[in-house]
Structures are given as C-alpha cells and as structure tokens.
Amino acid sequence: MFTEVRHASVVTQALVMTLGIAITGLMVGLAVSPAGGLGWLDVLPGALALAICAAAARMSSVVAVGPEAMTLSLRLGGVPVWRRRIPGHEIDQVQGGTASGPTVDALSAGGLGLRFLGGGRVALMVRQGKAVRIVVRGGRREYLVASGRARELTAAVAALAARTSTPR
Questions:
Q1: pTM (2 decimals)?
Q2: Which of 53, 34, 33 is nearest to 43 (CA)?
Q3: What are the helix (H) ranges across the chain?
Q4: Distance between CA atoms of 128 and 141, rounded to whole angstroms?
Q5: How far apart are CA 131 and CA 144, in angstroms?
Q6: Residue-wise pLDDT tens digits, 60-94
Q7: Which of 54-58, 88-92, 93-97, 100-104 shows the lowest mean pLDDT across its residues?
C-alpha cells in the first residue's frame, strides 16, 4: 500500500495568486465606467478569475496504490478534477525511482498540473520530483508521475503488477 499527496510549492502558489490578483484588478479597472459606478456584474468576471487562480494555487496530486489497482488524481482547491484507476493487471512496466533516474520538471512536462503529451502519454506533476514512468499493457497509455518518494512508488507499483498479473 502506498499513498502520496503532493501540493504545489509555496512559490508556485504565490505566483498563481499574484497573477489572479493582477487579472482581477485589471478586469475591475476596465469595468469602472466613466460615471464611476460599479455593479456586481462588473466585478463578477474578476471575482471568477480570482477564484480560478485560488483553486489552481491549491493544486495537488494524489497517487495511491492499493491491493488491486493504483489511482492517479489531480485536485484543484481540494476538488478532484481528474482521476484514473489503473488495475494492476493492466500495468506492463514501471521505471524510475532511482537516485540516478530522471527528474521531471515543469519545462520538460509542458507545465504544472495534468499534461497530455500526445501518443497516449500523460504527465501528472504539481512540483518537481523524480520521474516514475508507468506503461499500461500494449503501450496504449503511459503515465509520467513526479514523486517525492519515487523509489517507494516504483516498488509499490511493481509489486501490484506482479501480484495481479492476470485479470480476475
């Protein structure tokens, strides 16, 4: 059994919130009419932008390996927005988790959060970490997960795949 919850770094949270405040200020500033009035409909787009940035700043990933399957999920502000359950018998390969293994960063993954990289490849990362690569049988899907406990994650996924090698 393995569970890891990773949150965006404080620096990322601060940058996203600063961006949200700047966008909100710009939208409210543009909404001010020459007559000086501001209605709630004028402020609503800015408030919505700030709420979206606040949720993005509280981004987290959850990786859980259980007795039958592993689950990957992305949460924004504590609300799950993406979730994949991968049964153990569908896992073909797991790589990574070594000290000399690759580190995945925002630039190589195309940004923070959930990234669809094409060709069935999906990256899940809310902060930099060692990369764990999980390939589903037949190579139809590949997940690249940044982990602060990559060695433990690799061992847990490998054990799950070995334990559930045939579908039940």
A1: 0.84
A2: 33
A3: 10-31, 40-57, 106-109, 150-163
A4: 22
A5: 6
A6: 999 999 999 999 999 999 899 999 999 999 999 99
A7: 100-104
